[in-house]
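quick one: 2-acetamido-2-deoxy-beta-D-glucopyranose bound model?
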Amino acid sequence: MSRGCSYWIQRLLMAAWLLSWKKWLSAIDIGAAAAAPNVKPQGNISKVEDAQNYHIYYGQTFKVIKNGIDGKSYLLIQSDTRMAGRTKYCTPRIKSFVIPLSNFSVDTTTSFPVSFFELLGVVGSMKGMTSNTVASECVLKMVEGGEISLINASEPQQLAPFAAHFVSNLDQFQACNFANFAATGEDSPLQRAEWIKFLGAFANLEKRANQVYKAVKDNYLCLIKVPEAKEKAFKPIVAWMEYQNGIWSFTKELYKLKYVEDAGGENVDASINKITYNISNPDDIEDLHAILCMKHTVGMQLDTIPLHSSKT
Ligand SMILES: *[C@@H]1O[C@H](CO)[C@@H](O)[C@H](O)[C@H]1NC(C)=O
Ligand SMILES: *[C@@H]1O[C@H](CO)[C@@H](O)[C@H](O)[C@H]1NC(C)=O
Ligand SMILES: *[C@@H]1O[C@H](CO)[C@@H](O)[C@H](O)[C@H]1NC(C)=O
Ligand SMILES: *[C@@H]1O[C@H](CO)[C@@H](O)[C@H](O)[C@H]1NC(C)=O
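yep, here:
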């Protein structure tokens, strides 16, 4: 088979994957081999087990990430292939990226887990971020040293020079190099953690991403068993509260409620979760105290978890 011919077969397969996604999904599920007899992925692959909002499919020289949260497909083309120089997509449905990314920037204004890049070992390719609200000392040092530039998210020309710009704010305008990292769309902590495989795919670090996720998952599932195994007269009632601008509120975020359950606690009554309390309002303060005390006097333990840092 000539090079040209296999090139076109590849293009056709890709077009089929991208254009009639649903039909091919079932075929791919049965097995990549069945869907495309001659296409075997090279290298290591990641399988998404728990996360709901993205899938990764592997071709021989490219990958496709289907991002369920925005309905977009990212075609990741291996840099050492002919396709990399020729193929460029930037349509409302499909975007292409050449991988492994030679560099990238991150929208850290809305909290972004830069620790994922550290775990993957690719912080060296991170060349820009939009705010220094990150907890990582290492990343902050790199900003100080000029290895990472602070860029202004409102200035499109500052975001353009990067091979990819990772964002987690779906509402903003999305240029061709933007990739949506939408872990916050997942309901459980483990599902969120599995988004490390999404980032790993852009760096050909599937094996590393799989290892990290497996370690996190094994640990998490092991920790869940601790409270499960304990014979308890009652479960502690937990109020995960947040304080912002003079307002106390019970968290409604599903992944935090799941943390509480998995740690062996019980979340405060769902009816209470809706209420916010303004510290400037004496009636509010009284109501809040009443709820907290009531829980206590009926013989349940009420733990309050302080404001979860928004830094990542
Ligand atoms: C799979 O990943 C490992 C570790 O990252 C790497 O050494 C190996 O070359 C990869 N395999 C292929 C076929 O790319
Ligand atoms: C970012 O750019 C916007 C729009 O040009 C400007 O108004 C704002 O002051 C800039 N922010 C910083 C921190 O430079
Ligand atoms: C990022 O990599 C691209 C090539 O993929 C290069 O053209 C660009 O100059 C690099 N940008 C930065 C900021 O390093
Ligand atoms: C809290 O109450 C004070 C006093 O009534 C009011 O001025 C303030 O706007 C309230 N804060 C919020 C966020 O509603």
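The pocket of 2-acetamido-2-deoxy-beta-D-glucopyranose (ligand 2) is lined by residues 152, 154-155 (CB under 6 Å).
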